[in-house]
Amino acid sequence: MLIAKLDTVLVDAKNAQRGGSYVCPACGQRVVLHKGTRVQPYFAHRPAAPCTYPGEGETAQHVQGKRQLAAFFADWGTVTLERILPTIQQRADCWIAHQPQAIALEFQCSPISRDDVAQRTQGYRKVGAYPFWLLGKRYAQQQLGWGLIDRFAGWLKGWGLCLLFWDVDRQRLRVDHHICQAVTGDYQCQQTWVTSLAMLVRGPQRRQWWPDPNLARFRWELDRDLRRSSTVLQPLQTAVYLTGHHLAGFPESLVTTQVTPPLFGRGVLLWRIVVAAWLFEHVRFSLATARRLGEEAFRLVGGTTTAIRFQGPQLVNRALADLLADLVAGHFLQRIPNGWRVLAQPQWAADYTAWLENDEKKLG
């Protein structure tokens, strides 16, 4: 904590003198001034009397980072360190009087649960502020995955869906931007280092490019994981097996190169495989049937339409429209007044092990 109260005056720890009767501006309990040579000055609650307002322990990274962030974002408006918000019982690391909407900066360096992130995010929204999460070193070292995306990712103009990391040592911002999901389920993003607020506002200056999926490796990994009795893949394998097919023997005609928002669980390709296996059990089917099967397959692949700070409510409908259009273009389906009619079956591998052997040769 950088700000404490002495009598009725707020005092910054860097200007505080030892021996004062400092109290927490939020809960009113006594706090202790820590002022050494290794870390910047800060106040801390006594162990037996923790603050009733949620927050994280004051590591050197957290203390130093808050001051750096206050300077970095100063051009957006007056910055208040550790702004107390009594109506929601929260303390923003930095509060920016930005127009037309205030911004609450949260510099997260320590572990935090999804529920706590959701509660704080919702709290800032209740008071009309935009919650701006920035992550510290422990998070910057993690591999991009759903845990990070679900809790901290948000939309930023010019950057798309992104995660923000503040590097205290380099005093600059790392933006993992245009986060998306490959058809094989892998999360991917572009990464840019930002040295000024003007650079952040301007957005990235390079074109986005994504590699085509490695189908040979994807098919090989499917077979490997199924042989290892993957609990995640078994329900998908069962669904496809009941239609007379094997998951690893999927038709290449079902493959797409389009990326999706990172909400498709195991990936849109597995979803397309399951939906197609079910659809081609019919001679004709309606849009209602296709949507029902699409939603059921979405649950099977572990998809979700909601993260803490972003949503994809029409995700399944858009993916279904793309799949049906591809199957019509491939002359597997024909559009009829009340839905679709099956013209031909996509080619599944009768002996998927032969496909795997060919794929292994491609893998070298």
Number of helical regions: 11
Largest sheet: 4 strands, mixed
- Low-pLDDT stretches are none
The portion of residues forming beta strands comes to 15-25%
* Rg over alpha carbons: 26 Å
Shape: elongated
**Strand order across the largest sheet:** 6-7-8-9
Counted beta strands: 16
> What would you call the structural class?
alpha+beta
- Secondary-structure element string: EEEEEHEEEHEHHEEEEHHHHEHHEEH
Helix proportion of residues, in percent? Answer: 25-40%
Task: Report, as a whole number of angstroms, the end-to-end distance.
Answer: 56 Å
Mean pLDDT: 90
Overall number of structural domains = 3
Task: Write up what this structure looks like.
With 364 residues, the protein is an alpha+beta fold. It has three domains: 1-52, no CATH class; 56-202, Trna Endonuclease, Chain: A, domain 1 (3-Layer(aba) Sandwich), CATH 3.40.1350; 215-363, no CATH class. It is 32% helix and 23% strand. It has eleven helices and 16 strands. The protein has helices spanning 60-72, 114-126, 137-140, 146-152, 197-202, 215-227, 234-241, 268-279, 287-300, 315-329, 352-363; strands at residues 3-6, 9-12, 22-23, 31-34, 42-45, 79-85, 90-96, 103-108, 130-135, 154-156, 160-167, 172-181, 187-194, 284-285, 333-336, 339-342. The strands form five sheets. It has a four-stranded mixed β-sheet, with helices on both faces. Helix 8 (268-279) crosses helix 9 (287-300). The N and C termini lie far apart (56 Å). The mean pLDDT is 90.
